Amino acid sequence: MRKEHLNDIEIQQYVFQKEDCDSGLISHMHSCETCRSQAEHYTFLFKEFSQQEKPVFDFDLAGIVMEQLPQSEVAREKTASRFLVFSVIFSVSALLYFGGNQLLNLFTTIKPLSIGLIIISVLGLFGFLSADMCRQYRARVKALNF
Amino acid sequence: MEYKVNNPADRFLVDKVLSGDTKAFRSIMKNTEGLVAQIVFKMIANKEDRKDIAQDIYLKVFQKLGNFRFQAKLSTWIAQIAYHTCLNYLEKRKLLLPDPGSGQSHEEILEKLISQPDIFNNETEILFYKKELSGILGTEIDKLPPVYKTLISLYHHEELNYTEIAEITQLPEGTVKSYLFRARKTLRDNLLLTYKKDAL
C-alpha cells in the first residue's frame, strides 16, 4: 500500500475512472481519511452538477432554421403531382363527356395489331422510366454508404 | 458508453433530407437540439449571439449533410460542427483557455485552504454547504473558461465518453482527459475558495 497521499489526478481517477486504478491506489484510499475526504468533495460536487437543469433555447430554433431552408423538393413534387393528377382527371372527364361516342367507335374500328403495338410501346416506356428511377435511387444509397 | 455508429434512424432521416425532404431536417434538429444547446450555452455567454450561432450551426449542418459519411453518430457530427462554430466565434474574441501565468496568487491561497485538515468540520457546516452549493455551483461554472465548461458538461451532464468528446472537439483523447482533470480541479478549488470567503 502507498504511504504518501494521492495527487489530484489520482484522486479524480479514483472517483471517475475507478476501473483504471491500481490496487495500491485503491487500498490507500480505503485507509487514508484525507484523500477520501478529497474524493468525496469531487463525488458530491459532480453528483450535484449532473442534477442541474439542462439548458434549452428560449426561442423556436427549428422554426427559424426551417424558414431559411430552401423549399422542400418533396413538397414541390407533391404539388406538381396533385396538379398533374387533377389535370389528367379533368382532361379525361372532358374527353369522355364531349367525345365518348367517337372514342368507342375508335376502339371498335381500330385493328387489334395496332392496339397491341400501342400497349407494347406504353409498357416499354414504363419499364425504361422504372429502371431509371431504380438507377437514381441506387446511386443515392451508394453515396450515403460511401 | 456503447453506441451504434450506424443508427438506422439517423440514416433514414439523412437519406430523406438528401432526397429533398427538408421537413425531415426538423426531426434531426429535434433529436440533437439538447446537445447543441449544451455546447452553445457553455461556450457563448451573450444571449443574442447564442441565437445567431445556433441558427448558423444548423444551416451549416444542412449544407454539409451530403458530406456526412456515418463514420460517427449523427449527433456527434452535429456537436462537432456546433463546437467548432462556437470556437471560431471565441477565437475572434480571444476568449479561450485561461492564461497559465495569471493564477499564481490564486493557487497559493488555494493550497493553504486545501491543506487545512478539514474544511467542513461539522455537520451543520456540511448541511449549509450542500444547501448553498447548488446556487454557488451555477455561478462558479459560469466563471470557468468556455472550453472547460463545455468539456465538463459533455462528460458529466450529457454523459458522453472521452472518445465521443475527442471526436466532437477533435482533440486527442489524452488532451481531453487532461483538460477535464484541470477543469474539475479549477471548479472544485473555486468553489472551496468561494465557500471560505462566504464563511468568513
Describe what this molecule looks like in 3D.
The complex is a heterodimer of chains A (146) and B (200). Chain A has 146 residues and is an all-alpha fold. Among the domains of chain A are: 8-50, no CATH class; 110-146. Chain A is 79% helix and 0% strand. Chain A starts with 7 loop residues before the first helix and ends with a helix. Chain B has nine helices and no strands. Chain B has helices spanning 8-18, 24-43, 47-64, 74-93, 104-115, 123-143, 146-157, 162-169, 173-199. Chain B folds into two domains: 8-93, Orthogonal Bundle (Rna Polymerase Sigma Factor, Chain: A); 100-199, Arc Repressor Mutant, subunit A (Orthogonal Bundle), CATH 1.10.10. In chain B, helix 2 (24-43) crosses helix 4 (74-93). With 200 residues, chain B is an all-alpha fold. Chain B is elongated. Chains A and B meet through helix 1, helix 3, helix 4, helix 5 and helix 6 of A and helix 1, helix 2, helix 3, helix 6 and helix 7 of B.
In brief:
By secondary structure, chain A is an all-alpha fold. Chain A has 6 helices and no strands.
What is the strand and helix layout of this fold?
The complex is a heterodimer of chains A (146) and B (200).
Chain A: H1 8-16, H2 23-31, H3 33-50, H4 61-68, H5 73-109, H6 112-145
Helix pairs in contact in A: 1-3
Chain B: H1 8-18, H2 24-43, H3 47-64, H4 74-93, H5 104-115, H6 123-143, H7 146-157, H8 162-169, H9 173-199
Helix pairs in contact in B: 1-2, 2-3, 2-4, 2-7, 3-4, 4-8, 5-9, 6-9, 7-9, 8-9
